[in-house]
Amino acid sequence: MAYYQFRYGDGQVDLNLEKGNVLSVLHGHDFPAIDDIRSALFDALEHPIDAVPMKEFVGTDKNVVLVVSDLSRFWMRQDLVIPHLVDYLQEQCGIPYEHLTIVVANGTHKGGDEKELRTLVTDRIFDLVRVVNHDCEADDLVDLGTTSWDTPVSINRLVAEADCVITLGASTHHVMAGYGGGRKSIVPGVASMETICHNHSYALEPDRFVSNHLIGNGVLDGNPLHLDMLEAARMLKKLFTITLVMNAEMKLSAVFAGDVESSWIRACRKVDSIYSVPIREKADVVITSCGGFPKDMSLYQGTKTIDNVESALKPGGTLILLIEAREGGGPDEYFQWIGPLQDGTFEEKLRKHFTIPGYIFLLNCEQAQRYRIMMLTSISPETVAPMGIEAYHDLKELIAAADLQNKTVYVIPNGATVVPYVEEA
Predict the structure, then answer these.
(1) In the 3-class helix/strand/coil scheme, how is 251-299 assigned residue by residue?
(2) Are 153 and 230 in contact (CB under 8 A)?
(3) pLDDT band for position 75 (cuts 50, 70, 90)
(4) Which residue from 14, 30, 183, 367 could staple onto 233, CB 3.0 to 4.6 Å apart?
(5) Nearest of 284, 311, 282 to residue 403 by alpha carbon
(6) Rounded to whole angstroms, how far apart are CA atoms 290 and 301?
(7) Longest alpha-carbon distance in the chain
(8) Are residues 197 and 320 in the same domain?
């Protein structure tokens, strides 16, 4: 027998498996963490990619907005970066604290309270700089125009009217946009509900109720969501992008800065070099976790792990996902789509009023049709049964039901940082 550990919520799950069944334990490639975050950040700001140095970029601007990610992406540990960035803007660029505003890119998520904001930016920065939640349904959003993809672009007023906008995000694989970070800080980050939903509606095929074949993990060429997002971000008059890359242990390992596209693409290539893992063959079973909280806070967030690891599964195989999901499906709306799914009105309603939780719900149903999904989770079995997903509260019961005898298995302790691919002979 072999012993394996998986992060689960704030704790861990232990599992013993027959050693002979396990083809391999998959981890992201080793890449060192940054020892001196301040120096690495300052170097990136002073030697940006396809942009002038930060000091020159900011110049004499009097109204600077820094866009940062919300708590669902706290795994990127922006709290370790923001204090140094604010120091640089104040000390090196001469931007007074009162001329700097931090806007949290909540997208369609609800903004957090003061405690959450202090967690995101640190107590010191919260007490020095104005920190504001973006609200995608605010009544003072600013219209920037329409993209060539017919997406009406309305964004946060503070961001739209700033002399200079700086985005801070992280790149990782994303099932719809190809990769996170970069242009996503603007759309969906600080955009209106209408803008976000129109952009994300390209996740569906126009003539079939399935996911668009042009989108997917790591897919940028021809990806309509990505191209539309990028075009919308370039509507801002002055934009500088900072992108973080985490290693397989979720430690900050690289900082890229500069142009919203080219500097971010460099970050995406680094992500590939860390997370993309070659395998010789697909397996009957994949056992994985999302890497614990906050990545397993909900099924909505945990979907990203499913997207990553399914490439290691044979058609009709079994995915065992260890996901606490203390927030259930995530957005309240997520499980509300079970009704339309069961009464046959799902496509009609989602196409008429496209929402991201609705699409993620569809995606999870599609995944459950392609292979067997068995979850160790706090979600009740009755809740996910209509989706074709099996939920368990007891790991021994789950493993017994999975019947792993004579089945090949990949163990992926942190599925959030591993994207397997079959290596060509």
Answers:
(1) CEEEEEEECCCHHHHHHHHHHHHHHEEEECCCEEEEEEECCCCCCCCCH
(2) no
(3) confident
(4) 183
(5) 284
(6) 9
(7) 68
(8) no
Amino acid identity for residue 327 in this structure: E
What is the gyration radius of the CA atoms in the chain, in angstroms? 21
Q: Is the pLDDT of residue 68 over 90?
A: yes
End residue of a domain, out of 273, 305, 332: 273
Can you spell out the DSSP letters for 9-68?
TTEEEEEEE-GGGEEEE--PPP-PPPS-HHHHHHHHHHS-BSS--HHHHHTT-S-EEEEE
Residue-range definition of the domain harbouring residue 98: 37-273
Q: Are residues 197 and 314 in the same domain?
A: no
For residues 207 and 340, membership in a common domain is answered with: no
CA dist list (Å): 1 to 15, 229, 244, 288: 10, 48, 39, 18
Quote the number of domains for the chain: 2
Specify the DSSP element, H or E, that contains 222.
Answer: none
Cα separation, 76 vs 246, whole angstroms: 7
Pairing mode of beta strands 409-412, 283-289: parallel
This prediction's pTM: 0.89
What pLDDT does residue 1 have? 81
Query: What is the rounded average pLDDT for all residues in the chain?
Result: 95
What residues contact 115, with CB distance under 8 A and at least 6 apart? none
Smallest Cα–Cα separation from 231: which of 174, 168, 186, 173?
Answer: 186
Tell me which residue has tokens 């906050």. Answer: 294
Query: Which CATH number fits the domain that encloses residue 241?
Result: 3.40.50.11440
Stated length of the chain: 425
What CATH number has the domain bearing residue 326?
Answer: 3.90.226.30
